[in-house]
Amino acid sequence: MGGRRTEALLAEWRELPPRATVRLALEAAEAIDGTVETLDARVADAVIAHGEAWRLRRCLHRREHLAQIQRVFAGRSSLGEGATG
């Protein structure tokens, strides 16, 4: 489900200024973290029982994306992009 939603919004997201993108990503991360932190233990147990514990650890998924971003920037710096001088 999330993949289709992401795909549908991708064109719109690509039009956002970089700072707005960062702000929206941080706001979304904080919102989901807050929701997970306040889940009733019974709800969390049910999520785990259904084999979807990953939904309670979104930071792991975010790390994957951060690694992707770091690879992009590492590639640019090795090509001399973004360098001043």
Describe the overall structure:
This protein is an all-alpha fold. The protein has one domain (16-78). The chain contains four helices and no strands. The protein has helices at residues 2-14, 18-37, 41-49, 58-78.
The biggest beta sheet reads:
none
What is the beta-strand fraction? under 5%
Structural class: mainly alpha
Query: What is the tally of beta strands?
Result: 0
Question: What is the CA-atom radius of gyration, in angstroms?
Answer: 17 Å
Shape: elongated
Order of helices and strands: HHHH
- On the 0 to 100 scale, the average pLDDT is 83
So how many helices? 4
- How much helicity do the residues have? over 70%
C-alpha termini separation? 46 Å
Main attributes of the structure:
mainly alpha; single chain; 74% helix; 85 residues; elongated
Condensed summary:
The chain has 85 residues and is an all-alpha fold.
Structural topology:
Layout: H1 2-14, H2 18-37, H3 41-49, H4 58-78
